[in-house]
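quick one: zinc ion bound model?
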Amino acid sequence: MWFSSTGRHLRHGLQAAADLMAPSWCVGCGAEGTDLCPECTDDLRLLTRRPVAAEAGADALPVIDVTDDDLRVLPVFAAGWYRTLVADVVVAFKEHERVGLRRVLAPALRRAMTTAADHLVPAGVPVVLLRPPPSLAAHVRRGRDPLDELLQGALPVEGFTRGDHLITRRPVTEVATAVVGGASQKTRGSAARRQAHEQLQLAAGAQAQLATTEVLLVDDVLTTGSTLRRLYELASAAGAHVCGAAVVAATPRGDTPGQR
Ligand SMILES: [Zn+2]
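yep, here:
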């Protein structure tokens, strides 16, 4: 019952009641009565104002072009780096039910998407946005779909349409069977991660809709890039041209310029 639709509403109702009894505090500085105070909102906007090229640190991104002296990986634009206030706000929004933070994160995602399109897509060419579908486990745990909330807040943008229906996950029973039997804790972990990506697949009829379309991948946080790689492989195999990806925040690596 707790995981049913009724349970979800019940949990959200309880959360709303808890918020009334204990007013929220600023994720950035702890000021009472707001989820993000005006000063921290300004700081977040500054940190996500100019989307950055984030593909350099993500080792699992697909290679899209090989020349004599270079490998070109899938370009990814991130609204900001996943650290300090940006990371705190993303975690609070995704994991701690601070749903109101969409008001600052959705515009950040929109900036990343439009910057990516400006750099990667010829003017006037329509773009289909592909996102990883939420895993059932995450959906049950959270009772919501944070990336969907961000996309709803970021759109409409002229020329962008959502292609959520084009990618699905295989039924979870198949996945559970495949994951059981990992030899050690460590290999089971990586096998489970690999499986999590392998279970993404094209929906019925997606091939025809993706052929010859321009695709921009979208996600909330870029870490290794393995999820984006799986989406890239699926869309490319269907004949789409995947120009790149846009994310709210990218995990900085040791060689990332400007990392503290
Ligand atoms: Zn604050």
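Strands lie at 52-53, 63-67, 70-73, 76-81, 127-130, 160-162, 167-169, 200-202, 214-222, 241-250.
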